[in-house]
Amino acid sequence: MKHEPDPIQKYVNSPSLQQQLFKRSLWIVVISQIFGGAGLAAGVTVGALLAQDMLGTESYAGIPTALFTLGSALAAFLVGRYSQRLGRRWGLSAGFMAGGIGAIGVIFAAIQDSVVLLFISLFIYGAGTSTNLQARYAGTDLAKPNQRAKAISIAMVTTTLGAVAGPNLVEVMGKFAISIGVPALAGPFILAAAAYILAGFVFLLFLRPDPFVVAQAIYRAQSATNGSVQAPSSASKVNNRNLIVGTTVMILTQVVMVGIMTMTPVHMKHHGHSISDVGIVIGIHIGFMFLPSLLTGVLVDKIGRATMSIASGGVLLLAGLVAALAPADSMFVLIIALALLGLGWNLGLISGTALIVDATDPATRAKTQGTIDVLIALAGASGGAVSGMVAAHSSYSALSLSGGGLALLLIPVVIWSRRKQQHQPSSDQISLN
Asked: At 183, is the secondary structure helix, strand, or coil?
């Protein structure tokens, strides 16, 4: 019986086909990220307000963020391992579908006024958040080392289209929800459900051949040819250190960003701002989380991961100071503070992600990335849960100052790493040319 040729094998020895697939895969990631961005915006914008409305207190307003970030932690672990075994296509599509199901659950929880169902659904909804972030890795599987940060940035910048549109459709979706008998604050989750499910279908239908499966095949072929693709001892130490630094950068930026962002809608509502005002501020914040990505990616590739990580800490400190000093009735100053918060997060995420990709190979890459995203999600959950308690028992200003101060820890971490590497040559992982 004649066997059909392996469609993956033709890419193994063809750098030109690898680059074609790299570009095609990046376009698919781009399309999915537009939908994914719209999905994640719902929880960020009205999750805390919905919980506050159902619970009748501000003290637990950070719980929704904590729940969907805890859910994202579990999803990051599962998606990472699923992707390692079966490829990005199946892992990412499953994660987005789960996020859509969670959003549908939130809608029913609001209709039934069920806090238990709300919390369970928010936990499941978090799968979309982590999958949206893990999708950035799919654009790097076949990227050359000097293309990685730019590939990450292209994936992230397109998230802006959906992520900025989402908060600014809060009022429209609220009116639509009321028209069909659903509470207004659940309206954005109708958009989230549709957006996440569409993002899942984009990966399921179009991410073929799977770039991660191809990258694994190339790695195995190189291993068989060279006998071993293990890096020298000194390079392994550098890569382990890069994993530590990249993870630390992303964890700290996530804690600071989530903590301040979570309580901003509650702070604004408490001081008389409308839900439309909240949508504008959060929309601009999310825009600055993703829109600068193209420039950030170029800078990370050109001037270095470490320099941009330090810049992230400085911008986040400035964001915390501006938020702390902002007059409660000043939309303009709050917009500046949240824009800086988004920008600082952007610098940290792209530089940290590039460090992680540099330090891993296809044999363990997806699994390692998923594990690291678990830690990031848990950090975000902690930031979200603690933020409500800090703001309730002190003030929004104290919360913002604390976040800004925490961001300063990025600087000694990066300096430690650079000093350790001064006497050891760095080495990139096998380049999938």
From this structure: coil
Q: What is the pLDDT of residues 376-429, one digit of tens each?
A: 888 877 887 788 788 778 888 888 998 988 888 888 888 877 666 655 544 444
Residue 348 CA to residue 354 CA, distance in Å, equals: 10
Global confidence as pTM: 0.76
At the topology level, CATH places domain 16-421 in Growth Hormone; Chain: A; (1.20.1250)
Give the pLDDT score at 433: 31
Any alpha helices (H) in 113-169, and if so which ranges? 115-138, 148-168
106: its two tokens: 């939130």
Taking a C-beta distance cutoff of 8 angstroms, is the pair 41, 188 a contact?
Answer: yes
Side-chain-facing half-sphere of 428: CA atoms under 13 Å: 12
Tokens standing for residue 324: 């702390």
The tokens 């307000």 sit on which residue? 49
Rounded Cα distance, 253 and 251, in Å = 6
DSSP letter at 424 equals: S
In the three-class reduction of DSSP (H, G, I as helix; E, B as strand; rest coil), residue 249 is classed as: helix
Percentages (nearest 5) of helix, strand, coil residues in the chain = 85, 0, 15
Q: What is the mean pLDDT of residues 83-107?
A: 94
Identify whether the C-beta of residue 69 lies closer than 8 Å to the C-beta of residue 381.
yes
Farthest-apart Cα atoms in the chain, separation: 77
Range list of β-strands (E), 260-393: none
Residue 6, Cβ neighbours under 10 Å: how many? 10
- Distances from the Cα of 173 to the Cα of 167, 197, 275, 359, 396, angstroms: 10, 18, 12, 43, 28
Around Cβ 175, how many Cβ atoms within 10 Å? 11
